[in-house]
Amino acid sequence: DIQMTQSPSSLSASVGDRVTITCRASQSISTYVNWYQQKPGKAPKFLIYGASSLQSGVPSRFSGSGSGTDFTLTISSLQPEDFATYYCQQGFITPLTFGGGTYVEIK
Amino acid sequence: EVQLVESGGGLVQPGGSLRLSCGASGFSFSTYDMNWVRQAPGKGLEWVSSISNSGGTKHYADSVRGRFTISRDNAKNSLYLQMSSLRDDDTAIYYCVRDGFHTGFDFDDWGQGTLVAVSS
Fold this sequence. Notes:
The structure holds 2 protein chains of 2 kinds.
Chain A: E1 4-7, E2 10-13, E3 19-25, E4 33-38, E5 45-49, E6 53-54, E7 62-67, E8 70-75, E9 85-90, E10 97-98, E11 102-106
Parallel strand pairs in A: 2-11
Antiparallel strand pairs in A: 1-3, 3-8, 4-5, 4-9, 5-6, 7-8, 9-10, 9-11
Chain B: E1 3-7, E2 10-12, E3 18-25, E4 34-39, E5 45-51, E6 58-60, E7 68-73, E8 78-83, E9 92-99, E10 107-110, E11 114-118
Parallel strand pairs in B: 2-11
Antiparallel strand pairs in B: 1-3, 3-8, 4-5, 4-9, 5-6, 7-8, 9-10, 9-11
């Protein structure tokens, strides 16, 4: 199975900060990485697919990059509504696997 | 607008069975592969199972293989998860999720989830 290791597991940031979350796959998965945002009590929301393509309706302050085993999600200027937990997911092969999540909290 | 509405969750004893349902609307259900993803209380996301648009191909996580069965009825726009031999660690919110077919396997639309609690 492909393991997805996310870091950090949590971070504190202020509104306006640039935030970067990293995800590392245990083997090469090309660009088959997706990112999700989850707020408390809600279902996850699809943000980015194919490592760097923004889902329709997602603000342009979100971006993704990477290929092979190393991937990043960047929020260029953190907004109040961005405080949430973020998950990466590999869509390369079953069993499909998620990273452990990164909790972004207000500093 | 895509809508996915799960039902069938509840409290069940260890070793028991439960059948989850998901009603889909707002898109051509028979065109899309579908999935179940779960989240234990306070924990991360775990993919459970997927089924192809025709129902001919199914995949399972090792943790549920042999105990859970995914199925669908395209005429009824419905997805199902038959769960048996339930264990305490199956306690979770179960989400019905559409595969968006963007690249590889991805989850572009989610239901609100249904809670399954396994406890004596």
